[in-house]
Amino acid sequence: MSKIEVNQISSQCGSTLTIGQSGDTVTLAAGATQTGFGRTGTVDWDTTAKTASFTAVSGNGYFVNTTSGAVTMTLPAGSAGDIVSLADYTNTWQTNNVTVTPNGTDKIGGANAAAVLSTEGQSVTFVFVDSTEGWKNVQDSTSNVIGNLFIVATGGTITTCGNCKIHTFTSPGTFCVSNVHPCAANNLVSYMVVAGGGGGGVGDGGGGGAGAGGFREVKSPVTPYTASPLDGYPNAPNRITVTASPYPIAVGGGGTGSAGTIPDPQAGTNGSNSVFSTITSAGGGAGGTSPTGCIPTYRPGANGGSGGGGSTVCSSGGTGNTPPVSPAQGTNGGAGSGNTGGGGGGATSAGSNAPGPGAGGNGGNGAGTGINPSPTVGTPGPSAPLRYFAGGGGGNNETPGTAPVQGTGGYGGGADGDVPGSSGNAGTANTGGGGGGIDSNPQQPVTTHNGGSGIVIIRYKYQ
User: Fold this and answer.
1) CA–CA distances in Å: residue 100 to residues 36, 62, 117, 197, 248
2) Same domain assignment for residues 311 and 372
3) What is the pTM of this model?
């Protein structure tokens, strides 16, 4: 290695002095400094983050880590053209600040006083101008670009609540996940899957209220909200940890209310299933129907997510939680009695047996959850601001009178029973509510007491 020791290098001719050749790297020895070269508005970044107070050196940039506490940086004695930069290392300056202190009588923006940096993700650059203004902040960025480590997904109607995103599907679609978190716990999503409610029953006598669509929910520990009593998180098979994959979503339609006329009306149909990944909620059972008299063609309330209510004294209620899951996705329908229909089962309570002539059975109540706080989703209930889903339909009372009492629908979109000769009440759309029971006297078709369609909601932490 050759060594040259001189005090000055001058050009032999002209005004240009070249050091090194193309492709060479010219470096200063450790601890050496330079003057006279000026700067181009950039700094050399020190990649060892500062965690304690320090004095800056002109030409350097510093990553300042305030995770453990506040940090003070003292600027160097300023000369025109000096430059210093800072950046928030862990996005914690809003909690533990950085204080920038001028050296001696130097100024920061014309004032001989310290400046405080307190914005999350902030980065700043100071240049020393002159003795009047001192250090001027020539660059201040609060645009903190961070690689997204959380779930990134599309599909349905997307809303946000705090650090959570909520995807609401009111019709079939795809929950498409393109990015997941490196920690599996953050990929365990919350969800609610509600199937379509059953169609209400009709008969010569009170028709049975329909059962609600099956209700299934899991609340992930990383998504804060109030879950329903049917939170299935403790049962491990209910949990869904997503990967970067598409997840087809099925949203079940409501069942068709029984139709036709006495003496032998047609049976209604169950609601359709709703599906997310490995979770299937079963459609609600149709309400019971009965012809004139207890002849063999009467039909009891159907089995389903929740069971349909029975129609008149001939007809029993259907069985809920069919097929069985844990926790139960629904309850049983109530039995008919006399000329009144039983109420359809709801997610959390069974449909009422018809109390006898003069009153139809009430539909069972659905489940209240805070998974989506939007007032346009679900229906109100006794525990605001929770929104309710999967209420059973009310049974019908056929007994003549000026004010026959119809069974009321359960919280969560269950329809009330309706008076004889009307077209019937339908379950509320996108709640899985059961359709209301109806009597066809006078003998006329009734076709509008269908079940409410289902819904699928997925919630996860996105930041």
Assistant:
1) 26, 12, 8, 64, 54
2) yes
3) 0.71
